[in-house]
Amino acid sequence: MSVVATLDAGEVLDIASVGPHGSPTVSQSQCCGSVEEDGRGDKDRKDSEDREKPRGITKSKAAPKRKTVVSVVASTPPPATPASSSLARPVDPHRTAAPLLTPRGSHITAYPSTTTTTTPTTTVENLLTEAIAHLLSVDPRLKPVIDKFPDAPFRPADLAVEIDPFQALVSGIIGQQVSGAAAKSIKSKFISLFSVTTTTDTQVEADGDDEDEVGDAGLRYKPAPFPSPQQVVSMDIPTLRTAGLSQRKAEYIHGLADKFASGELSARMLLTASDEEVLDKLIAVRGLGKWSVEMFLLFGLKRMDVFSTGDLGVQRGMAAFAGRDVSKLKAKGGGKFKYMSEKDMVEIAAPFSPYRSLFMWYVWRWENVDVAVMQA
Known about the structure:
two-stranded antiparallel sheet; globular; DNA-3-methyladenine glycosylase activity; HhH-GPD_domain
């Protein structure tokens, strides 16, 4: 495994900065933004059963003569428009659209890839517009729900957020099967394991405006950045567990860190590899189930062609989109795909490729699934 480039903390990769052979050119950034996935493994999500159904959308000709509706719910105000240079950044719907931060202290390696880098076909400014146009060309019935919910996660400002993939994946593992408050507390303790300590008579410059916390024995703790993969690998499992992690989660995070530290997982691979290769690589990591990885691809990497048939909200939304009575299907009970078979969902979604992520997002909205929970 040969090293192609070594990046300092906070350096950023995007699809435009990777050469024809995958060799990166990088820009310096001081930002360490991240997107955390919900990370609840492959469990079906429990969306609200009593939420109001969408209004104002008619069904397909083959559907029973029953009207579905799209509810008018206030959407999130659009974020500020990025600088013109960011808007012009090339992107490809078949690859990662988010700029990726290289985890601190790690490097990019020439790890074997079964897929090749494609040539960007559009820009940050035009990606969402082109995706919506494609969806409407496939099925104009989507227009009312698209108009009601303009806050899709592929707006130019969303694509300007720099993602640290290691931090996002660790946060997802921490958040598996625990409440949001518990996950936040554990993550804070996890980061504090790597804090720098000094005596109280030593001036320590804190990150931001907050003062350093004073701990036991007069020690002052400098707020720590998220640990690098190498730092996590160097810490033993029992110490990691003191942050409130279970034995398995500590092992999962340690194993994930080892893959980033060795270069088996890297920002470059996550940026340029195909959806299928990224899925295969991440699902092979202990602690990352298929649903968790799919949500990371969508909300973290901003990949445009993800479609999660195992998501309960998608199943319900697809059934409603096809004109089926979801309440009756629920009452019948059944197996994992009680609302619609996986085969039918894949066939219906196929024409919306390469923008199935956006189609899935609107399908969630069709059934009023709380997508904010998945992005928390």
